[in-house]
Amino acid sequence: MSSAQELASYTPDAPTLLTLGVFDGVHKGHLSLIETLKQRAAERDLLPGVVTFSPHPAEVLHPGENLPLLTSVEERIELLKAAGVSLVVPLTFTHELSRCGPEEFVGLLVRYLRMSGLILGPDFSLGRDRAGTIATLQTLGARLGFTVESVAPHTLDGQVVSSTAIRAALTRGDVEEAARMLGRPFSISGPVITTSRRGASLGFPTANVGVDPGRALPRNGVYATIAKIPDGQFGSVTNVGHRPTFGHTERVVETHILDFCGRIYGVTLTVEFIAKLRDEVAFQDSEALVAQIRRDVEASRNILREYV
Predict the structure, then answer these.
(1) Rounded to an integer, what distance in angstroms lies between the CA atom of residue 300 and that of residue 257?
(2) What is the predicted pLDDT for the residue at 198?
(3) Phi, psi (degrees; rounded to nearest 5) at 240
(4) Residue (of 228, 248, 249) closest to 238 by Cα position
(5) Is 231 left (phi over 0), alpha (psi -120 to 50) or beta?
């Protein structure tokens, strides 16, 4: 399906004010831009909308490069709608779209999404060879009948909030810094899959979360987390890593849910990362591991008292 066909499937019932981008993570920087979008749209009696690209352009233009994503496109859409965006349009990013010139692309937005204006970050550009700079789009807007406004990036303590900065924090295992930039705890979701039941044999049964291989994960280690299942939310301890005590090599996310007893295989489990407890290490034997897990559970309970 072409970009024109995708856009034609949306029929806004009013002229729109749009912003464009991937919006991976829908973090505080994105939310600040969206607040400006909603404010300007209300002032002009326009419908606020977001066009979000999927897959990430880097995956298409630079295949083989590993760019772990903070959110799936489904999560992105849900978060954008929760932020009060009336129109969310996920647009498939393809090589064909990457070769589309800025005039052709904004012409599609005017035609199919009734675009009357754009709100964009200061370094935004689009189209072939990134020719669609803010200045170019303003020139096109004067001719095609839409406005273009550039807004300053959102900062925290002098640092620009970005998806790249959040990925860097996760690589360090700093889930608290990631949460500060996201405006919520970093989380992953996936079905609970069958495991070797090693945790149960140690007295600490774990739920192994089936995570998409393209998703970002915190640095290997043990974390105080919140586990969310249809039955509710519970404190938990989550290990991200390779279980080196038992010689495993596959990277896994396994969660011990506190004060919970039940079968949840196949259920979608969401894990919110609150604080890092320690790095992942290999223990001399299972007894030493069990003793450490008991300490991890107690530390997690203390951290999570204000959460659950």
Answers:
(1) 11
(2) 56
(3) -110, 120
(4) 228
(5) alpha
